[in-house]
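Just curious. Invent one:
>
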Amino acid sequence: MEPEGASTSSPDCIQILRIFTNQFPEAKITSFLVLEEAPPLLLIVIGQDNGSIYCIQGDIARERIKRFKLQVDNHLDKSQSSITGLGFRVDGQVLQLFAVTPNTVNLFNMHTQTPTRQTLDQIGSSVTSVGMTDRSEFITGLPEAIYFYEVDGRGPCWAFEGEKKFLGWFRGYLLCVLADQRTGKNTFNVYDLKNWLIAHSIVVKEVSQMLCKWGNIILILEDKSTLCIGEKDMESKLDMLFKNLYTVAINFVQSQQSDAAATAEVLRKYGDHLYSKQDFDEAMSQNIHTIGHLEPSYVIQKFLDAQRIHNLTNYLEKLHEKGLASKDHTTLLLNCYTKLKDVEKLNEFIKSEDGVGEQKFDVETVIGVCRAANYHEHAISVAKKAGRHEWYLKILLEDLGRYEEALQYISSLELSQAGGDSERVWQNYYRA
C-alpha cells in the first residue's frame, strides 16, 4: 500500500549512527521508540534486557547528539528486568516516558534536567504488548486483562482473556492481537470501548508487527504478507447496526460527536422500527428527541393515522414547550384536549400565568378552538389575559349572553388605555 502522492523511489540514507560505544556497551535490545521533538531534533529510546533505557537525543543527521541512560530495574535475573514496553506522553512542554518491565510500570519525567522516575504499579508485563491512547493513556496487556495508566497510576482495566501479542490504538478503538492457547490461532480484534462491543474480529496468521498508517491498520505477518484493514464510513456502519442494534447505533453516533441532525436521523429510524412493532409509546419517546430537526408533520401524520391520540398529545406538548409549534399545531393540541375531555390539561395550557406572556401559542387560534368546542370560559380567560377586548366582548355577548357584564366591561375601558383594540371597542359598542 502506498499513500497518495508518495514517491516510488527508495529513501536516501542521510546518516549512519553507531548505537553502542565504549561508554555505552552493547546489550540486547528489547524495545524501541522514536519521538520527533522539534524537527530536526529526535529522541530515540532503546529498552534493553538489563533494565536500562539507552537514550540518544539531538540532531541525528548532523550527529549533534547527546547520549544518556535511564535505569529502571537492576535485577540479577535479566528476564525480570527487561524493558518490555515504552510510551511517550507529551503535554505541552512536559515530556514523560512510560516504561514497563515484567514486574513494574514506571514513569520518567524527561523535562527535568535530570530525569526522575516513579513507580506507578508493581504489576508489569513480560511481553511487548503496549500502546498509547489518543488521551495519552499508557496501555499494557496481561493474560487476564488490559490495563490503562495515567501519570498518577493505574486507571480502568478491561478483562479480555488470552495472551495479548500486540496492542494499539486507532481513532478511539482499542486494537489487540490475541493468541488462543486452546486453538493455537491468533485473532485480531477491534474494540469499541465506549459502546462495549467488538467492532471487528478476524482470525490472522502469526503477526510480526502492527502499524496504524495512512488512515488504515496494517498487520505485517511473519510470512512477509500484509493485511490492511480500513474503517467503514459512518453510513455503512449505521446500515449494519440498523438491522437489529438500534440502541447501539444511537450510542455510536453520539460517541462520534456527530451533529444533531445526524443523531436525529438515527432516532427517526429507530422510532419507525418501534412503530412497526406497535411499540407506540417508545416510538414517540424517540420521535420527541428529534424535535427541532425532523419535520413535525412526519410524526403527526403517522400518529393521526394510528389514532394514538395520547402519544400525539405528548408530542404536540413538547413542540410547544420548545417554542416550535405553529398555529395548526396549537389547534390540533387543543382539539386533542377537548376530544379527551382533559379539562385539567386544557386549564394548564391556556390559564397558566406565563402562557400568553411567553407567546407559547397564537391567541386568536386558542380562542377560536375553545369557542368551537364550547369551552367559553377558557376562551374568555385567554381573551382577557391577552388584552383582546373585542374578543372578550364577543364571547360575553354572542356565546354567553351576559349583556350586563359586557356593558360594565365597556364602561371600564378608557379610550387611551390599550391602543387600537380598545379604540375599536368604543367605535363598535359605545353609543353616546
